[in-house]
Amino acid sequence: MAHSKKSSTRTPKAMCLAATFFACAWLGATPVYAQLSERYFAEQQNPPMQVCVAVFYPTTGTLEELIALRREGLMPATDLLVVGVYHEKEIGDYQAARRYVEERQLDWVQFHRISGDLSPANIYQDNSCRNDFAQIVRLSDGAILFGGPDIPPQCYGHKTHLATAIKDVYRHYLDLTFVFYLLGGSQNNAHRPLLAEAPDYPLLGICLGAQTINVATGGTLVQDIWQVTYGKQTYEDVLRLGPERWHTNPYRGLYPDARLLGYHLHHIRLKQEGFFCQSLGFSPSDAPLVVSSHHQAVDKPGRGIVVAATSMDGRVVEAITHRTFKNVLGVQFHPDFPILWDAELRFRFTPEGEETSIRALLEADAPGLAFNRAVWIWFFGKAAERHRSRS
Fold first, then answer.
1. 94-103 helix and 60-72 helix, angle to the nearest 10 degrees
2. For residue 289, what is the enclosing H or E element?
3. What value does the mean pLDDT take over residues 216-223?
4. Phi, psi at residue 342, to the nearest 5°?
5. DSSP per-residue string spanning 15-43
6. From CA 302, how far away is CA 309, in angstroms rounded?
7. Higher pLDDT, 17 or 280
8. What distance in Å separates the CA atoms of residue 257 and residue 253, rounded to the nearest whole number?
């Protein structure tokens, strides 16, 4: 898969701060936690001594992603507590996740199960999860929403496209109402956002997580990029769009027996006035390389949502931030996949192509690797700042 090589003319602020951040913020011995909890936030009176991050959808796959970030030095190896948050009616196998934690003695992981009654009728209203959400914001230093399946269009007032695949409604109900409680939205102007009292609280949404931030604040989604945005009905027509417009690998659909990677790498365009240029020190000329695996995207922005990056043709939103709450970031691409960091893992993207590693492609196309790393350095840096300000 050919990409033009870009070179960055500026050293991102996030990269300059990285050495100081990891040298100073995370020193100390690894703490020993109590027995694995099912309702961690409900059992605590005071914020933990460690930096605490709430992670939604804490399956074994999500935990493996966090471990890979830790191994890469992008997530603190000490003095950090991760609390996995989920709804008891989600279809995720959280018993398997608990066994995973216990068997590997991950003493930096706890769980918080939520059991409130949720439906499209009450996710943007005062509901029975409000106490859980207030405790999460009070006791944690930030939250991460990971990727996943399509949001039910009913949650943003649309009919369901034939290409939309809904798999786990309670996961969406929980994530949407949590973000609504944090940020507020046009669905209910009377609601006072929790972050009005905690504006420094960092929230990172990845792929589905970015879409959740937009929908929860009153925005909508494009339900299928190839069909709706580009008007294409076949894989053959999609191929002719060119790689910068794919967002997932169309060759995977055409050659199912070729053992091709379904993910796709493409460049994104950073807005001069947006988050990455203004806060992380990147330039619009950088056009970093990212990894994508999605067919939906932000359409109408929600209340307070600002577009920070797009596809190279400007037609697909690739990153969003919040106008009022400056530590909110949603990215449509995937800086979380473990395959970004492992140079030994090699893949083919086309039937005739040679195997290569994603890390090698990112390293060869500056500032691809530095850009993906910067997302994590920013998030955990903000979580550490919030923790220090409350200590």
1. 40
2. strand 289-292
3. 98
4. -95, 105
5. HHHHHHHHHHTT-SPPP---SPPSBHHHH
6. 16
7. 280
8. 9
70 and 76 Cβ atoms separated by less than 8 Å? yes
Query: Do strands 305-311 and 317-322 pair parallel, antiparallel, or not at all (unpaired)?
Result: antiparallel
> Which pLDDT value is given to residue 35?
86
pLDDT digit string, tens, across residues 128-142: 999 999 999 999 999
The count of other CB atoms within 10 Å of the CB of residue 19 is 9
C-alpha to C-alpha distance for 13 and 16, rounded to whole angstroms: 5
pLDDT at 56 over 50: yes
**Mean pLDDT, rounded, of the chain:** 93
Both tokens of 108, joined, read 């930096």
Secondary structure E strands in 49-196: 51-56, 80-87, 109-114, 143-145
Instruction: Compute the distance between CA of residue 324 and CA of residue 318 in angstroms, rounded to an integer.
Output: 20
Q: What are phi and psi of 264, to 5 degrees?
A: -135, 145
| pTM more than 0.85 | yes
- Rounded-to-integer distance, Cα 83 and Cα 391, Å: 19
For 106, what's the count of Cα atoms within 13 Å in the CB-facing half-sphere?
23
How far, in Å, CA of 226 to CA of 245, rounded? 8
Q: What does DSSP say about strands 305-311 and 264-270: parallel, antiparallel, or unpaired?
A: antiparallel
pLDDT beyond 70 at 10 = no
Rounded Cα distance, 120 and 226, in Å: 27
Residue 108 DSSP SS3: coil
Tokens of 127: 């509901």
Q: Which residue has the tokens 């970031």?
A: 329
Q: Which of 267, 164, 147 is nearest to 225 (CA)?
A: 164
Identify the CA nearest to 326 among candidates 199, 232, 183, 144: 199
